[in-house]
């Protein structure tokens, strides 16, 4: 148990040193750093990994919760960092529920929350603004949730998934995250 605590402390120290390089600050409302598109690009550039995966999550989004284990498993199985990006407002009472859901899956998961100052309004408006900013022109901009965003160590967004990526593979099954990941995200991480 002591060994796990030491590993967790070292991981947290590394995470916060990366965040300091990117000038990330914890939200004044919750114990999670607040971030915007430029912060995500900075994290990916400074991760020391070829690619970084950012997974968007809202506490009330059933697919987000369902696909969370698949998102977190990417870090274990591939040479990548995975960050869960909470799309609810920093001061939204539901955001703590989202944090708890992530920590129930992985206590030391890396999390970020979208900055209120950059993404004002309700969760759908915040998410739409964020998705519009982060999605390159070669991808269709669909402001859904449970997105896998892959950014390489040059700071280029190389993948932004959406609900159509699930449907392309099996028109009867729109929820198979592992199948979708194996065709879209995992090839970028190998």
Structural write-up:
This protein has 8 helices and 7 strands. It is α/β, with parallel strands linked by helices and 190 residues long. It has a single domain (2-189), classed as Glutaredoxin. It has a 7-stranded mixed sheet with strand order 1-2-5-4-3-6-7, with helices on both faces. It starts with a helix and ends with a helix.
Defining key terms:
190 residues, seven-stranded mixed sheet, 7 strands, 46% helix, Glutaredoxin
Task: Give the overall shape.
Answer: globular
Strand content: 15-25%
CATH topology: Glutaredoxin
Number of strands: 7
Poorly predicted segments: 3-20
Query: Which structural class matches the secondary elements?
Result: alpha/beta
Terminus-to-terminus distance: 32 Å
Quaternary class: single chain
Please trace the helix and strand order, writing H or E for each element.
HEEHEHEHEHEEHHH
Mean pLDDT level: 87
Report the radius of gyration as a whole number of Å.
16 Å
CATH superfamily: Glutaredoxin
The spatial strand order of the largest sheet comes to 1-2-5-4-3-6-7
User: From the coordinates shown, what is the CATH architecture?
Assistant: 3-Layer(aba) Sandwich
Biggest sheet architecture: 7 strands, mixed
The tally of structural domains comes to: 1
Helix content: 40-55%
What's the number of helices? Answer: 8
Output the CATH class name.
Alpha Beta
